[in-house]
Amino acid sequence: MSPKHSFRNIASKRKNPCFDCGALCCRNVAVSLDTPRSKKSWDEIRWLVAHKNVHVFKDLENDWLVEFLTDCDKLDVRGRCKIYKKRPITCREHEPHECIINGAEDYYKIIFRNAEDVEKFLEKKKVKQKKKQRKSNKQKKRKKLLNKKIQNKKKEKTRIRKQIPHF
Ligand code: SF4
Ligand code: SF4
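A: This is the predicted complex of the input protein with iron/sulfur cluster.
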């Protein structure tokens, strides 16, 4: 390979993020999910990821999505779109220069690849919540004790005042 050729490769790699990517964006389907808040929604997530090649993740903008890892049928063996000129709007709107699927960093904050991931996450969450609850209970107890002390002091002051004879 000539130096000129390898330089051109580096330059094109910089210019086009799709170079050598393997068309990752054409190999999955991601659909929005509601933020899981209830026991039922967590159970649904557990059910989703119990299926092969189905992941659920929270992206960098805190949106929840379910992704199905499956190749688009219009992808050819070289990783090119067979219907490029007629590709759907969703594909046209995917901006390669803003693409994070092929980025150096993760595109998710949390990801569940199987039911065990969800169970582990919920267990950790439970432990955290318990710790938080214990901390808040301690704080409440301390506050209650402090209030009681203040009340007692006030009562003591009034008692002493009452004992002092008035002339
Ligand atoms: S848009 Fe992103 S994921 Fe798709 S081919 Fe280009 S770099 Fe790869
Ligand atoms: S239609 Fe073409 S651009 Fe769109 S996902 Fe399929 S292969 Fe990729």
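The CA atoms of residues 75 and 126 lie 43 Å apart. The first strand starts at residue 29 and ends at 33.
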